[in-house]
Automatic annotation (TrEMBL):
UniProt organism field: uncultured Desulfobacteraceae bacterium
Family: Belongs to the Fur family.
Record bears the keyword DNA-binding: yes
Keywords: Cytoplasm, DNA-binding, Iron, Metal-binding, Repressor, Transcription, Transcription regulation, Zinc
Domain Ferrous iron transporter FeoA-like as annotated: residue spans: 153-224
Top-level taxonomic group: Bacteria
Cofactor(s) in the UniProt record: Mn(2+); Fe(2+); Zn(2+)
The name this protein goes by in its record: Ferric uptake regulation protein
């Protein structure tokens, strides 16, 4: 079914781009062909590197321009995950889906749920709202990364949106006393608000927000909330 969709997309691409007299049609068609075969989420730089390895002399600007033309004419769509560079994927008209994005390994998982779409329509109707389209990106940690993760991690390794229970302090009594003065103690459940991997980390305990440096956050060991398929205390 997906192969048939690609054939249809190529035929429509030829008709539309030739009718609109888009320049360098043959080169742009090669870009479309590789793009559809990839069937994944690529940045313009990643697609450029594919052509560079194959010895095709497309410039970076030409690849980006072609992707934007494909987006404009409905053959590609662009997504920004976690405010990163635009990632392009084929826009197959009969294939709707949403995304789950792993905050650790950056894997992007596509999924489709009719029940979810029906619920969105129901909610929109309840508010007298006419929905034209929707976009859902769920951020979390994929099953593989959960399997590889230790039960206890430095708070500095927790991801934005994650909750974890503080279990241990590595900085001695003086460090623990300092944490207590900030309202951070063993057994508290912490929700990570912002963690960019370096610099300051912003978290919350109940309704209290606090900011600590990454060096301090590495001295706080926490137990992440158990994910699906992984029980607390498992290896």
């Amino acid at each position: 079914m997906r192969m048939n969709s690609h054939i249809q997309e190529k035929e429509q691409f030829k008709k539309l781009f030739q009718k609109e007299r888009i320049d360098r049609f043959e080169d742009r068609f090669k870009i479309l062909d590789v793009f559809l075969k990839s069937d994944t989420h690529l940045t313009s730089d990643e697609l450029f590197e594919i052509f560079k390895k194959e010895g095709l002399g497309f410039s970076r600007d030409f690849v980006t321009e072609t992707l934007e033309l494909m987006r404009f004419y409905g053959f590609a769509q662009a997504n920004r995950f976690q405010n990163g560079s635009p990632r392009y994927e084929p826009l197959i008209l009969d294939r709707r889906h949403d995304h789950m994005v792993c905050a650790k390994c950056r894997k992007i998982i596509e999924f489709h749920s009719k029940a979810l779409e029906d619920l969105q329509m129901e909610i929109a109707a309840a508010h007298g709202f006419h929905m034209l389209q929707h976009k859902m990106d769920i951020y979390g940690i994929c099953s593989q990364c959960l399997k590889e993760r230790s039960d206890l991690i430095p708070l500095a390794r927790a991801r934005a949106g994650e909750t974890a229970t503080i279990e241990k302090f590595l900085g001695g009594r003086r460090f623990e006393a300092r944490m207590l003065s900030m309202g951070i103690r063993r057994g508290e459940t912490v929700r990570i608000i912002t963690n960019r991997g370096e610099g300051q980390l912003v978290a919350a305990v109940e309704n209290r927000r606090f900011v600590i440096g990454s060096k301090m956050a590495f001295k706080i060991l926490a137990r992440p909330e158990a994910g699906p398929g992984k029980q607390r205390g498992s290896a």
